[in-house]
């Protein structure tokens, strides 16, 4: 696809940043995991079974780790950050369950999706159950500001999903419209996860604003790379099948760029395959070829780097520390997934 492969040392440094982050929050994450297991309990057997299927499926839990790290970096010494981190993970899991139903996905994190095992109705309802658990944990912290941030994020994420439905199969979608979608459906939870770390530490001013900016820009970069990987990755890396976005008719940035830069024949191809849903054998390979010809994947990753640098710059107000360095290195990790 014409993407420049980074030096091996750069990749190792980004992976080391994640390991450092995991080490720094290890004790707190153990408490989060214990709380999650406790709050998933229900007299309805299907609820913990279905929720556990996704929660224990091997995700890195970046979002709750961000909450924990940001809280500690802001000097927090209590335990409410554990409740907030668990809330963030419950919200994230609920959105994944709902997304898989909307997208009719068959694979998530390398496993069969819950909707195929238990059905769409159960997946939606268990997602709702997890959202309820998330809000109960928020209330327990007695932080009205944290509740406000996370409840607003829940609304924005839902708006983003509806916006994505509206742009699905619409080849006239602009880059601005696409960015608005991913800012809502992905970046909003990243931003909330980082901002509440400052809020729980009673840092509601400059530090909270900086961490909100860090999380939001990191989230945009993360989603840009995800969308690039769908046309340039491996199923083992994605946790889903390469080309799923194409098969589902999603209009992501690689498609937007390839469509805008293409000739009449190429634009007709995108209209037929995505807008009309008329996909034939060999069309996915043709999509790869068109994107390669127009540097659509490479330029998507370049934009991800841009947002990643904005995320890194937002950390500049914090004193140098191992936690700040790990958060900065997480930017490199998110980008390096594209290779």
Strand-helix topology:
Layout: H1 8-24, H2 26-39, H3 46-55, H4 62-73, H5 80-103, E1 107-108, E2 111-112, H6 114-118, H7 120-140, H8 144-167, H9 175-200, H10 206-232, H11 235-238, H12 244-247, H13 253-261, H14 264-275, H15 283-293, H16 296-314, H17 322-336
Antiparallel strand pairs: 1-2
Helix pairs in contact: 1-17, 2-5, 3-7, 4-5, 4-9, 5-7, 5-8, 5-9, 8-9, 9-10, 10-16, 13-16, 16-17
For the structure shown, list the relevant keywords.
two-stranded antiparallel sheet, globular, disordered N terminus, 1% strand, mainly alpha, Farnesyl Diphosphate Synthase, 339 residues
Question: Briefly, what is this?
Answer:
It contains 17 helices and two strands. The chain is an all-alpha fold and 339 residues long.
Q: How much is the radius of gyration in Å?
A: 20 Å
Separation, N- and C-terminal Cα atoms: 10 Å
Total number of beta strands = 2
Question: In CATH terms, what is the architecture?
Answer: Orthogonal Bundle
* SS-derived structural category: mainly alpha
Strand portion? under 5%
Q: Helix-strand pattern, N to C?
A: HHHHHEEHHHHHHHHHHHH
User: Which geometry do the CA atoms define?
Assistant: globular
**Assigned CATH superfamily:** Farnesyl Diphosphate Synthase
Tell me, what is the CATH class? Mainly Alpha
| Strand order across the largest sheet | 1-2
Please mark out the parts with pLDDT under 50 across 5 or more consecutive residues, or reply none: 1-9
Helix content: over 70%
């Amino acid at each position: 696809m014409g993407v420049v492969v980074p030096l091996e040392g750069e990749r190792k440094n980004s992976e080391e940043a994640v390991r450092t982050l995991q080490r720094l929050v290890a004790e707190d994450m153990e408490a989060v995991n214990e709380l999650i297991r406790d709050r998933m309990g229900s007299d309805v057997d299907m609820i913990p079974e279905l929720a556990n299927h996704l929660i224990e499926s091997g995700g890195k839990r970046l979002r709750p780790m961000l909450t924990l790290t940001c809280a500690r970096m802001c000097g927090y010494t209590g335990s409410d950050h554990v409740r907030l981190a668990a809330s963030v993970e419950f919200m994230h899991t609920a959105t994944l369950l709902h997304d898989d139903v909307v997208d009719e996905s068959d694979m998530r994190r390398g496993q069969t999706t819950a909707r195929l095992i238990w059905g769409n109705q159960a997946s939606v309802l268990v997602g709702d159950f997890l959202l309820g658990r998330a809000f109960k944990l928020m209330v327990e912290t007695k932080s009205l500001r944290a509740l406000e941030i996370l409840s607003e994020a829940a609304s924005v994420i839902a708006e983003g999903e509806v916006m994505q439905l509206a742009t699905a199969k619409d080849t006239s979608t602009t880059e601005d419209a696409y960015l608005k979608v991913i800012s809502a459906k992905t970046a909003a939870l990243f931003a909330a996860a980082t901002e509440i770390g400052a809020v729980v530490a009673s840092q509601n001013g400059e530090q909270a604003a900086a961490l909100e900016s860090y999380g939001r820009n990191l989230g945009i970069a993360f989603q840009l790379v995800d969308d690039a990987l769908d046309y340039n990755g491996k199923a083992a890396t994605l946790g889903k099948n390469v080309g799923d976005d194409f098969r589902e008719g999603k209009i992501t940035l690689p498609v937007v760029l390839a469509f805008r830069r293409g000739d009449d024949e190429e634009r007709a191809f995108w209209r037929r395959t995505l807008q009309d849903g008329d996909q034939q054998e060999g069309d996915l390979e043709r999509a790869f070829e068109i994107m390669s010809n127009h540097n659509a994947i490479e330029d998507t990753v370049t934009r991800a780097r841009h947002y990643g640098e904005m995320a890194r710059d937002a950390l500049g107000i914090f004193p140098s520390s191992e936690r700040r360095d790990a958060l900065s290195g997480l930017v490199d990790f998110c980008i390096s997934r594209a290779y």
